[in-house]
């Protein structure tokens, strides 16, 4: 089983090192090869997604990614910026289905900014479309109008087939869970998402057991804070999913806990924490590696069909938390506060 390991920027290298440590401790037959992406790709080859990195990712069965981005690259031309490397690899590998589970570990109920009774038992799966929408729609750009004023343009567009294939992923996941989907759109204003709603309704005819509801994105943002446990599977487009998944992560105590899987039609996948590169804390050994370690568990589950070892990792994380180990972002009184690599060690010890 070939894994392309792309640590990226900021805290990427430290958190990925912990996930690699955990994977190695399982003694599976994994061939892991590292390559640069994002700012690291730009430094190494003048490109946030160097050809060699893309080729390695294409040849691999799965990709384990840290995070990309650093303020020091913000002044580069747009196509050279780290985020472009991430968006391109998603597009090139056709990773249209982004799964972001927001699961509250009971030990962390006190770490959420919401009241424990609002979040305890929380288990939401956000299914975010990842290769379409306003992120990729043409036309786009900044140009100068005839009157000399500048104008910025992005285009929200979704084709029927793009909506249907992400909808299908969500319905299949719902069938394995509580058979409830909430589709999030802005159908009262945006035609692209009016079509989204229509296609979801058409698709639901194939899944009579699944209860499909719809919610406008503004209301969904509110409901996630008001009563998050009403949700099971949420399916939404690229930009709404980007925003709502950050919001959902805070219900679980810290964005440092949220893993993700980005899958193509054949379950080849890229696995990365949902959080960013956090350059402000990079290199200090204080980042939370659990989202990345849990992403490695998702890799075993979705790409390698190895549910047993995925559960082993997830249970090891639970055990480390139950033993009181906490990184700074989830620290509470009386815990054993540890650094990034010590948290990795705690998970390995629990394995
Ligand atoms: C995410 C990130 C990315 C996105 C950025 C870094 C381009 O926020 O994975 O959620 O917007 O998709
Ligand atoms: Mg985001």
From TrEMBL:
Lineage: unclassified sequences, metagenomes, ecological metagenomes
Classification via PANTHER family: 3-ISOPROPYLMALATE DEHYDROGENASE (PTHR42979)
EC assignment: 1.1.1.85
Chief localization: cytoplasm
Coiled-coil residues: none
Subunit comment: Homodimer.
Keyword Heme applies: no
Entry's Gene Ontology BP terms: L-leucine biosynthetic process
A GO cellular component entry from the record: cytosol
SUPFAM superfamilies in the record: Isocitrate/Isopropylmalate dehydrogenase-like (SSF53659)
Keywords: Amino-acid biosynthesis, Branched-chain amino acid biosynthesis, Cytoplasm, Leucine biosynthesis, Magnesium, Metal-binding, NAD, Oxidoreductase
Cytoplasm among keywords: yes
SMART domains registered for this protein in UniProt: Iso_dh
GO molecular function: 3-isopropylmalate dehydrogenase activity; magnesium ion binding; NAD binding
Gene3D superfamilies attached to this UniProt entry: Isopropylmalate Dehydrogenase (3.40.718.10)
Family indicated by similarity: Belongs to the isocitrate and isopropylmalate dehydrogenases family. LeuB type 1 subfamily.
Domain (Isopropylmalate dehydrogenase-like): residue spans on this chain: 2-347
Protein name as catalogued: 3-isopropylmalate dehydrogenase
Enzyme class, spelled out: oxidoreductase
Locations listed in the record: Cytoplasm
